[in-house]
Amino acid sequence: MDEIRRLVWEGALNVQVTVKSSLLIGDADLRHYTLNLRLPRETYIAIYLRTIIDRLRNYLRTDPDNEDQFVWLECQGVPVYWNYPIGILYDFMTGLNPSDRQRSHCSGELLNVWKLELAQGSQLPPGVIPFGSELQLVRTYWMQQWKQACYVLNGSSKQMMSLSMQDTQKFWDALIARDQNAFRQVASKIIPAKPRSIPICIHQSLPKMQMFQPIVAGHKSDGSRMKLKDLMKEQFSSLFVDDNSLSKVVSNGIELPLTLDLLDVYARFMSLDGYLHLSLCLLSESEYGRAIAR
Amino acid sequence: MLTHAEYSAQLRRLCDDTLKNSDLITSIRPSLADGEVLFRTALPSSVAKHNLLCNIEFKICYSHVYQEPRLLFRLWRRVPSQDEAIDFLTPWFPSDVVQLLGIQDGFTVSLDALFSNSSHSQETWFSFHPCNTAEIVGDKQDYRDDYLNRWLSMFLFSWLAKS
């Protein structure tokens, strides 16, 4: 289990950030306003936004620190909600189907790069939390997410609220410094051995972007352990019919077998905010054909 | 703590009675099927001197995680345009919102992004965090039928009426 946790924590994405052309000063050269980054999947992109802005500010028409201006990122014109881990944003905003990715690698195609654009304006797109010049807002949001996850896990937020100031600081510092051991040490004070329920976020990009937060117990009423397929059948009965699923469940870029035990999936794939983030992706055409034939 | 069924029943009463009859509420838009109600209030006197703030919009919804009602709000401010001699309206996210509105200590208020049942999209709101709601409101059985009313008195009218 530790090895999977390590791989999840160390997972990373190639991200390319450019600037929307309407925001560029006239003679900017593409090479100068393009940033290529390798970012951990298990973090918030907002943590790096200040660095991105600082590297690109010389090519922007308007001062990004102007208090009447907001800055955000977009993927093909769709705003990127920084309040989810980057990895899950990539998975559901690109509709990532892991088997397609493997095929493209085999055919010798280029590196997977997630292309984002820096956008700026006097009005934020709906649903985007404004990003200030300091990380305090990100930290506050992250703490509230943990408080909520703690409530789902324990039936109370007390385990989170009673963390010492040192532990709370250590928890945040571990996220920033990418120190998995320190992060797990504090997280283990919040996550019980037998959770009351499991904090889960399911992200769906088609037919439209939606997010579901079902309240799911680790065990069914007959005492048996809840499987991933039980959850999916309960929540998305039209997509997961007996053995003919029309969709896949992806976490951290990996397709999860539906037979997995939900508590085990949580223990291995839990994200930086205490939630298990899952992305639904539709089967590819050939996979759909095979599913129908069965 | 309220079940969703109790919340739905009490939300209807809250709209028909408390919100409709309050002098502080200037408009109400219930969306009872979605378990939500939007409303606006007069500006608190404490912020009247802040001449660019022009609207406070509130939303009541239900937190299935905490099984509690949740109070959200957002501010709108005027941005005067010298060129066009008109004002533009824009959402406003001041970092000192608690002090600005005169919200009492004891409430945790922060920016949150929540999925709306009515718009089916993510929306940004300031949110009163609901984790210690039962302790603030009191959840004795005797109060249960009036829980939502008591909750709104504590979470909204306690500071709005004063400020």
UniProtKB/TrEMBL annotation, chain A:
Residues 8-99 form the Autophagy protein ATG5 UblA domain. Keywords: Autophagy, Isopeptide bond, Membrane, Protein transport, Transport, Ubl conjugation. Residues 137-192 form the Autophagy protein ATG5 alpha-helical bundle region domain. One of its GO terms (biological process) is protein transport. It is found in: Preautophagosomal structure membrane. Pfam families: ATG5_HBR (PF20637), ATG5_UblA (PF20638), ATG5_UblB (PF04106). GO terms for molecular function: Atg8-family ligase activity. It is a peripheral membrane protein. Its main location: membrane. One of its GO terms (cellular component) is phagophore assembly site membrane. It comes from the Eukaryota. Residues 197-280 form the Autophagy protein ATG5 UblB domain. Involved in cytoplasm to vacuole transport (Cvt) and autophagic vesicle formation. Conjugated with ATG12. Belongs to the ATG5 family. This is Autophagy protein 5. It comes from Torulaspora globosa.
UniProtKB/TrEMBL annotation, chain B:
Keywords: Autophagy, Protein transport, Transport, Ubl conjugation pathway. It holds the Pfam family Autophagy_act_C. InterPro entries: Atg3/Atg10 (IPR007135). One of its GO terms (molecular function) is ubiquitin-like protein transferase activity. GO terms for biological process: autophagy; protein transport. This is Uncharacterized protein.
